[in-house]
Amino acid sequence: MLAEVAADPARAHRAHVLVAFEAYHAGPLLAQGLVSAGAPAGEICVAVRPQDVPRYEKHPPGWVPVPADRLEQFPLHVGHGRCRFLLAPMARVERGLNIVDQGGRSLLHVACLVVRPVLVMEEPAVLLAMVNSLAYRDGPSPVKVGTRLLITRRA
Fold first, then answer.
1. Most buried of 50, 55, 97, 99, CB within 10 angstroms?
2. Topology of the domain comprising 2-113
3. What predicted TM-score, i.e. pTM, was given to this entire model?
4. Residue 57 contacts by C-beta under 8 Å, 6 or more apart in sequence?
């Protein structure tokens, strides 16, 4: 879809995608998913916490990290101008961040929202899954549970 937009001189400036998500930790995961799906890593720009930028500079992830307080630099001033995908937290892009060119034209062709589904707790399968996940997360290891069962049976 972006290739078609990029090939049209009247719309080529809009050959960019915004992917908004809920929390910073989702950005690198979504970037990895895009890379796995075939998107070139060098075309993916991920908003990261400003204090995390030095860590990404020390160990480059393949995609282009940009401080979340500098999103107005997308796409022309990050990734040598090659970035086509901007992945950013909703809180940073929901309040009218305008990603525009010098003439004020939007640079975005597509804006996507990525959210986790809301669980309906009235459904028995969902409720059971939630309880089990909490038990596995907070409970003792399975080895300890097995040992406890053996001790209880012998008693």
1. 99
2. Rossmann fold (3.40.50)
3. 0.70
4. 65
Sign of CA dihedral 84, 88, 94, 96: negative
Q: Provide the 10 A C-beta neighbour count for residue 29.
A: 13
Residue 96 has pLDDT above 60, yes or no: no
Contact 102, 93 (CB under 8 A): no
* Between 59 and 6, the higher pLDDT residue: 59
pLDDT in tens, 124-143: 887 888 788 877 777 666 66
Domain limits, the chain? 2-113, 124-154
Q: Where are the beta strands (DSSP E) in the chain?
A: 17-21, 44-48, 64-67, 85-89, 110-113
Distance CA 147, CA 125 (A): 29
pLDDT of 30 reads: 92
Closest of 17, 46, 42, 15 to residue 30, by C-alpha: 46
Q: Which two tokens stand for residue 24?
A: 């910073």
Pairing of strands 64-67, 85-89: unpaired
The pair of structure tokens assigned to 1 is: 């879809």
d(CA 25, CA 49): 10
Element (H, E) at 18: strand 17-21
